[in-house]
Design brief:
The structure holds two protein chains of two kinds.
Chain A: E1 4-7, E2 10-13, E3 19-25, E4 33-38, E5 45-49, E6 53-54, E7 62-67, E8 70-75, E9 84-90, E10 102-106
Chain B: E1 3-7, E2 11-12, E3 18-25, E4 34-39, E5 45-51, E6 58-60, E7 68-73, E8 78-83, E9 92-99, E10 111-114, E11 118-122
Parallel strand pairs in B: 2-11
Antiparallel strand pairs in B: 1-3, 3-8, 4-5, 4-9, 5-6, 7-8, 9-10, 9-11
Classes of the chains: A mainly beta, B mainly beta.
């Protein structure tokens, strides 16, 4: 099975900072990569699919890139409401595996 | 508006059984594949099981294969997860989630709507 590895596992940044989270697949998955945001105590919500396509309603400060095995999620200017854990997910074939998550905090 | 409402979570002893339900509304339930994802306390997300729109195809994570059964009743707009031989490792919040598209030929399975989750605790 393909493994999904995120880094870092957590980060702390100041409001307004640019934040980048990496997700690496153990084998190529083309662009079949989604990103989710999970705020504390809440259910996950879809941010990005097809590696770089923003889900409707998601602020434009979020962006995604990558293809094959290496992907990134970028928050161009971190806002207090972005405090959350972010998960990547491969969705090409079974099993539809998630990364272990990256917790984002505000300094 | 899509709504997914899970229920059935409870405290159960090791070796016990439980059936979770997910009541769906706000979309044509019978046209969408559905999925269960779980999250152990303080941990990440784990895909558990998925079922096609008509129930003809079912998929399971290795960790639950042979113990869990996913099913659906399209006449009741409800998704189910029957969980048997439960162990402490099954303790988690269980979410139901809707596939992004009802177009079956589109490849892939990601989730554009999630329920609020139901907590399953397995302990003696």
């Amino acid at each position: 099975d393909i493994q999904m590895t995120q880094s870092p596992s957590s980060l702390s940044a100041s409001a307004g900072d640019r934040v980048t989270i990496t997700c690496r697949a153990s084998q190529g998955i083309s662009n079949y990569l989604a990103w989710y945001q999970q705020k504390p105590g809440k259910s996950p919500t879809l941010l990005i699919y097809a590696a770089s396509t923003l889900q409707s309603g998601v602020p434009s400060r979020f962006s995604g890139s990558g293809s094959g095995t290496d992907f990134t999620l970028t928050i161009s200017s971190l806002q207090p409401e972005d405090v959350a854990t972010y998960f990547c997910q491969k969705y090409d074939t079974v099993p539809w595996t998630f990364g272990q998550g990256t917790k984002v905090e505000i300094k | 508006e899509v709504q997914l409402l899970e229920s059935g979570g409870d405290f159960v002893q090791p070796g016990g059984s439980l059936r979770l339900s997910c009541a769906a509304s706000g979309f044509t339930f019978s046209s969408y594949a559905m999925t269960w994802v779980r999250q152990a306390p303080g941990k990440g997300l784990e895909w558990v099981s998925s079922i096609s729109d008509n129930g003809g195809s079912r998929y399971y994570a290795d960790s639950v294969k042979g113990r869990f059964t996913i099913s659906r009743d399209n006449s009741k707009n409800t998704l189910y997860l029957q969980m048997n031989s439960l162990g402490a490792e099954d303790t988690a919040i269980y979410y139901c989630a809707k596939r992004f598209s009802n177009v079956v030929v589109l490849p892939g399975n990601y989730f554009d709507s999630w329920g609020q989750g139901t907590l399953v605790t397995v302990s003696s």
